[in-house]
Amino acid sequence: MFFISEQSVVNPEIFYATNDRVIYAIVGHINHFLRKKTFSA
Fold it and tell me: Which end of the chain has fewer CB atoms within 10 angstroms, the N or the C?
């Protein structure tokens, strides 16, 4: 998510969006395929 914001002075983990007309988000799926490992003796 991308937005224009100001960071909280009290709690740096909090951001306040200063302009709610310019909030952008990238929506999609992340696929992770696991390969089955086979071992031979």
Answer: C
